[in-house]
Amino acid sequence: MPLFNLARLEQDPQRMIKIRHGILRDRHWSHVAAHKNVLFAFFRAANTIPPEDLSGVVADHAAQLDLFPPAPFVELPCDLTGVYEESADCPGKTAVATDLDHRCRETFIWQKDPWELTKEGDDRTLSAGVDYQLAYWLGRRYGFIAEDAPETCLQWRGAPPQN
Q: What is the pLDDT of residue 16?
């Protein structure tokens, strides 16, 4: 998040290019591009410098956000064996990042391991399941996600209150 803010708020053109390309694109994104992390993808896409085109990245990650499961999250046991191929290099992990609707549930989804193959779970643990909101509103702010209810979202209804 600090890197996103640094990239979007930098005023000096040379530093902005260094931050957006040298750090955000070349250093950070190269490590997380395959994680299916909508928040990181939208941070990256919001800080492109034309003519760079990340429309494919935005579309892929907006589709991932659509898969976000409904709240609340009960941390049930999870076994993705047979759903995702197991990694040859890391036993017990998937070969590719799992889609959002398949991820083993626990607390804040963006900070969890997207390669988790199995999890014991604890049905006494409940998470709010609202961690999609930051990615959603970031996507709305930058036009990556279309208005889902035109002319109703955040629109004033009725007469203003009288003092």
A: 94
Residue 156 reports pLDDT greater than 60: no
What's the predicted TM-score (pTM) here?
A: 0.83
- Residue 28 and residue 101 in one domain: no
| pLDDT band at 152; cut points 50, 70, 90 | low
Could you give the CA distance from residue 104 to residue 115 in angstroms, rounded to a whole number? 9
Tokens of 130: 């609202």
Rounded CA-CA distance 3/18 in Å is 12
Q: Quick check: is 157 in a domain?
A: no
Domain that residue 92 falls in: 72-129
- DSSP three-state, residue 72: coil
In a domain, 161, yes or no: no
